[in-house]
Design goal:
With 526 residues, the chain is of the alpha/beta class. The chain contains 16 helices and 25 strands. β12, α11 and β13 form a beta-alpha-beta unit. The protein starts with 11 loop residues before the first helix and ends with a helix.
């Protein structure tokens, strides 16, 4: 029996090497530029690591990585880690100014891929062509002192991913090898992953769900299948890709899945090989899954809601979606993975009673050591608190997410603290209104926000997209529907259909772009 992924290992490189030993001639990676066995990916990543070392990259350094989705990007991730350095992924769709900031803030010592003009002189650049050239090259003799594959240690940085947060300024979140290994080990207790699985790399390597997709596959001897980014933007092409490649493990944000589900149900698509759909990145509303569950059920594929945060290494909880969940309106995220401690803390600073709302605090081996170059924010968000079972204080990450604890011990997501608004004296959770609008049978998705109409006249407004193949309901029908579900102070003053629900590069709802489309459509209607 294979050892659980990450179990007893000191680094991701060691976890990969264990998979190479057991599955050397099995396919590790499939992308547009071909398929590669574990033996080939091992040799390719070693050659990339040797090239980086020859250019001065050492343990503890950070290496920027900007490449389109493909085999070269994955081989480069492994190659960078082999040197003991951490990789700093840059999305190819990022504005240049954002990438310039990240390169400076992370103090990278080398760059892999196309810099797109966002770097000056001072450190080496390894082009995509040079990465490809390392494939199949004879492995050169190891120079004196070259780090071996097990050099990275459990506490060493593996990657730094930048998130925008509520301030708009990107903030770097360094994650160490041990945190990812803890994620893989905890997940192995909940899932029945195997070497015969095919994991889809759906997300940008600059979004932390890609860490789960990549290492979930490469630590278990499974196959990682890279989806081209232009395919990921089309639900129809995405569905065809999943079917054609026999994907068994699919990770999605609820926004992206709602589009995929509408196409799948509309076509009556058969997906017999799909075993798990794992949700992350946004609050999962039961309405998102009802049409899918009516067509496919909830057992095959198994639907799993995994609440997570970049600062706590991708996924923090596990909940297998049930029909009971779909019959209700709660977003159940379940229980923390093995190793996590947690508190639900009220605004007064005490532990919440079951059913009482509070902020989720998380502790354990998956928690980041803090933000890069932001000691003040680190001190504010990473705090000491009482251990869950007594004993000395432990270090928690204050998530900013609101939850309650059910009588059965499950965590229920109540949304982001920063998506709560106060309007005319009422505190309102916008996602509650969005869930109510989305429960209308003709609505596939909805976004609600507060819009000023005149000085002192702020009102709730709603943009929505229509379910596939349906005609958009008019505002009167939506008002009538919402009137039965929500009190007057939570009812939007205006509803406007928009042609699509725009997403960020991470697959989440782009709320700013939704507001722009709303204004555009309102202008056309005048």
């Amino acid at each position: 029996m294979d050892q659980p992924p990450g179990g007893g290992r000191g680094s991701l490189v060691e976890a990969f090497e264990a998979a190479v030993t057991q599955h050397a001639d099995e396919i590790a990676l499939t992308a547009e530029d071909g398929s590669f066995t574990y033996r080939q990916l091992d040799a390719w990543s070693q050659a990339i690591g040797a090239l980086l070392y020859s250019r001065g990259v050492r343990r503890g350094d950070r290496v920027a990585l900007r490449m389109p989705p493909g085999a070269g990007a994955i081989a480069s991730v492994v190659g960078i880690l082999r040197t003991g350095a951490a990789y700093v992924p840059l999305d190819i769709r990022n504005p240049r100014a954002r990438n310039e900031f990240i390169v400076r803030d992370a103090a990278v010592t080398a760059f892999v891929g196309d810099p797109d003009g966002c770097v000056g002189g001072g450190f080496p650049v390894i082009s995509g062509e040079q990465v490809t050239a390392q494939l199949g090259e004879p492995q050169p003799p190891t120079p004196s002192g070259l780090p071996g594959p097990s050099l990275p240690r459990r506490d060493d940085e593996a990657y730094v991913i930048y998130t925008s947060g509520t301030t708009g300024r990107p903030k770097g979140v360094p994650i160490h090898h041990g945190a990812v290994l803890a994620l893989l080990s905890g997940a192995s207790e909940k899932f029945s992953f195997s070497a015969s699985d095919r994991w889809l790399l759906f997300h940008s390597i600059a979004f932390d769900v890609s860490v789960w997709e990549t290492w979930g596959a490469l630590s278990t001897g499974a196959r990682l299948v890279v989806m081209p980014h232009w395919t990921a933007r089309s639900p129809e092409k995405c569905l065809r890709f999943i079917a054609d490649h026999g994907i068994t493990i699919l990770s999605q944000t609820p926004t992206a899945f709602s589009e995929l589900a509408a196409v799948a149900c509309g076509q009556g698509a058969a997906l017999p090989q799909l075993r798990y759909v794992v949700f992350a990145g946004e609050k999962l509303l039961p309405a998102t899954l009802r049409s899918w569950a009516k067509r496919y059920g909830v057992a095959r594929p198994t639907l799993v809601n995994m609440y997570g945060i970049t600062e706590t290494t991708v996924h923090s909880t596990f909940h297998e979606v049930t029909q009971e969940d779909l019959d209700g309106d709660r977003s159940v995220v379940g229980r923390p993975l093995s190793g996590f401690g947690f508190r639900v803390v009220t605004p007064e600073g005490r532990d919440a009673e079951p059913g009482e709302q509070g902020e989720l605090w998380l502790s354990g081996p998956q928690v980041s050591k803090g933000y890069l170059n932001l000691p003040g924010l680190t001190a504010e968000r990473f705090v000491e608190g009482p251990a869950p079972a007594g004993g000395p204080p432990v270090r928690y990450y204050r998530s900013g997410d609101l939850v309650s604890l059910s009588p059965t011990g499950d965590l229920v997501s109540l949304g982001r603290a920063d998506l709560q608004v106060k309007l005319r004296g009422y505190r309102i959770e916008l996602s509650d209104i969005e869930a109510a609008v989305q429960s209308h049978p003709l609505v596939a998705g909805a976004v609600v926000w507060v819009r000023p109409f005149a000085p002192g006249d702020d009102r709730l407004v709603c943009a929505f997209v229509t379910a596939a193949g349906q005609t958009a309901p008019d505002a009167r029908a939506l008002r009538s529907h919402i009137k039965e579900l929500l009190p007057n102070y939570m009812q939007p003053a205006a509803y406007t259909a928009i042609p699509r629900l725009p997403r960020t590069t991470n697959g989440k709802v782009d709320r700013a772009e939704v507001a722009r489309l709303w204004e555009e459509e309102r202008g056309h209607a005048r």
